[in-house]
Amino acid sequence: MRMKPSRNILLGLCSVLALGFLYYSSGRISLRGWNHKSLYDKQGFLVKLDTSLPLELMYKYGNLSEGACKPGYASAKMTAIYPKFAQLQPMFLDPNYKRYSKICDYSPPFGVKSQEKIIDILLSATKSYSLGEDLDNMNCKTCIIMGNGGILANKSLGQRINEFDVVIRLNEAPVKGFEKDVGSKTTMRITYPEGAIQKTDRYETDSLFVLSAFKALDLKWLRHMVFNQRLRSTDGFWKSVAKHVPRDPNDIRILNPFFIQEASFKLIGLPHNNGQMGRGNIPTLGAVAITMALHNCDEVAVAGFGYNMSTPHAPLHYYEKIRMSAIKESWTHNISREKEFLIKLVKAGVIQDLTNGICGAGC
Ligand SMILES: *[C@@H]1O[C@H](CO)[C@@H](O)[C@H](O)[C@H]1NC(C)=O
Ligand SMILES: *[C@@H]1O[C@H](CO)[C@@H](O)[C@H](O)[C@H]1NC(C)=O
Ligand SMILES: *[C@@H]1O[C@H](CO)[C@@H](O)[C@H](O)[C@H]1NC(C)=O
Ligand SMILES: *[C@@H]1O[C@H](CO)[C@@H](O)[C@H](O)[C@H]1NC(C)=O
User: Fold this and answer.
1) Any atom of ligand 3 within 6 Å of the Cβ of 249
2) Which of 202, 208, 232, 233 is most deeply buried (CB count within 10 A of its CB)?
3) Residue 182: what pLDDT?
4) Residues 155-209: pLDDT tens digits?
5) Is the pLDDT of residue 237 over 50?
6) Where are the domains of the chain?
7) What percentage of the chain exceeds 70 in pLDDT?
8) Over residues 20-36, mean pLDDT
């Protein structure tokens, strides 16, 4: 008996889907099976990484035109190489933050424990907890995190950087005078007291000021900035800090410390140290910002990341003359461990590295 052509197509489609499902579930089953150690590394990342799309994502994204923003792409690719990834995590603390159980059990920098009172005061003064209406309403957002590496110099990437919906800058990295290489747009500046811009005329007028609190004192500092109070003492900071932040409270946010916790203990695999700050267990602000973007952006790119130690005379930062050779062994960070994590993201195409500093010559 002859079947109608449409039935044939349907049957064909069904077997393709069934095959796809088998392929998919075999991956999932072996995850829990005896051989998962050979498939996944200690942190839970797939060992064999390449930029090809898993079958289920090919169906979703294979169809989109080149350059179009792909909804959910970064988190889908992340989940494909790191099945433990759970996307939903707000960028900033909001009045519901006590319901985020994972941050309530840890003190800063990994959580909010015993800081609830000051956080409540800060949140009631800032009153805003999101990126703002325009960006919140986009159904697909591209984000770029700007590292401060000298590798950005003379690459004329400014225009390309401005095309991202969200441009995230770190600490005091300047824009004025460097627009050609680093762009002119700043959606937010993530910083801590010692890293914040000190000269008030260097602040851009239209970006969000985001505190990443690494210690309890950082929240106290922010309270002084929000309420415009004089900072009487700088005891407890490891270098001089900004005395005034010329931003309206409505433009100030507190970064969700979940991203510090997840980057350190889960993604990079730094020592847990009973949940306390200790030797080599604090991720750099760059790694924290990337972690935040994986949870909140549809596509994620970076630029200005990575140090090339074989060029000791090259500039460390794009905006100053300090050379690569000045970089010191850090007590708080573990740069080499962190680099392994960033390489995984680039290798698997979870993030795009515009300046190629993470993988360098080979990945
Ligand atoms: C793929 O493209 C076709 C033709 O342009 C369109 O009809 C279909 O809805 C697209 N599929 C997806 C998943 O976007
Ligand atoms: C960038 O170009 C300027 C002007 O040509 C030059 O002085 C500077 O050394 C260059 N910087 C780097 C890192 O190549
Ligand atoms: C970084 O991690 C490596 C490997 O886990 C370890 O040997 C090294 O001591 C760590 N460095 C710091 C500064 O903690
Ligand atoms: C570092 O710089 C040297 C000299 O420019 C270059 O040959 C090498 O490929 C670079 N290495 C990485 C990892 O980028």
Assistant:
1) no
2) 208
3) 98
4) 999 999 999 999 999 999 999 999 999 999 999 999 999 999 999 999 999 999 9
5) yes
6) 1-39, 55-362
7) 90
8) 47
Decide: 360 in ligand 4 pocket, CB within 6 A: yes
pTM for the model stands at: 0.87
Task: Find out whether the beta carbon of 311 lies less than 6 Å from any atom of ligand 2.
Answer: no
CA-closest residue to ligand 3 atom 4 = 337
Judge whether 183 and 162 are in contact, CB under 8 Å.
Answer: yes
CB 143 within 8 A of CB 168: yes
Residue nearest (by alpha carbon) to ligand 3 atom 1:
334
More confident residue, 183 or 315: 183
- CATH number for 55-362: choose from 1.10.287.3240, 3.30.980.10, 3.90.1480.20, 3.40.50.280: 3.90.1480.20
Distance (Å) from CA 284 to ligand 3 centroid: 14
